[in-house]
Protein 1
Amino acid sequence: MGKAGKALKQVLEDYGISQFGLAVAMDVERNNVYRWVNEKRDPTAETVVEIVRALKSLNPDAAKAFTDAYLGDET
């Protein structure tokens, strides 16, 4: 599976954001977040944008960390 799940898992752990909290911020089911974090399913490009928006609303530093971890030197 992809890099997004690994990046998301690390950011949620580092910033103390629960999967449920992210799910609520995104208005999605928690099992979707679980699948991304555990690399059972990759989020779509549109979903990655939604993840960044939700993380910004919860903790802007977490959103930046996710973007940096996911995109690396591409930003």
Protein 2
Amino acid sequence: MTNKQFQELSFSEKARWLYFNGHMVTSIRYYKHKINLYELESLLIEVFYNHAEDRVDRIEILDTKSKRMQFYADQVKLPVDLTH
């Protein structure tokens, strides 16, 4: 699956793809969310779970320029091309 193909899926289709085909890598706490990081084929996907609202707010491809990258890098070995 490509970035474009994943982005074109509906919210429920993204959730379904991750459930059946994804592999959870790790999770972090970030402000009001618990973010689960999944590997889906060659993509890294973040699932933003809001505890206060008891719902998933967003499912999106990992932005490698995000400040969250350091939180993930502290927990797992990310490919070199993602950390530079």
Protein 3
Amino acid sequence: MPYPMLMATLAASAEFFGGIMVLFGIFARWGALFILCVMLVAIATVHAKNGFFLHNRGYEYNLALIAMSLAILFAGSGKWSVKQG
């Protein structure tokens, strides 16, 4: 990938701010989308060649985060969130 420092900064920002958005329920669907994109890229570029299991640095944790992100994308953040949507 070109521009590794830019890509690393974007990925770290998407994970950090996406996590904050999901944690506090502020535009949680957007935060879940950010996390989903980063995890898909992580699987495609790093983890896929190692297989599924963790002891080989596999992608099962990434799949769990993708499942969480999809659940929030489809269901929303709930009535206790700061901002619905």
Protein 4
Amino acid sequence: MSARAYDRILKVSRTVADLDAAGDVRPAHVAEAVGYRSLDRTFRT
């Protein structure tokens, strides 16, 4: 994974945690962000 991809996953993880009203980023938030990344790569043309 590139540094850029890692940074984007962390940013999305923070957003997911914020939407979950969590004070910190949990493994579940990171997993959800990784899932969104795989969806993005699947539907990108």
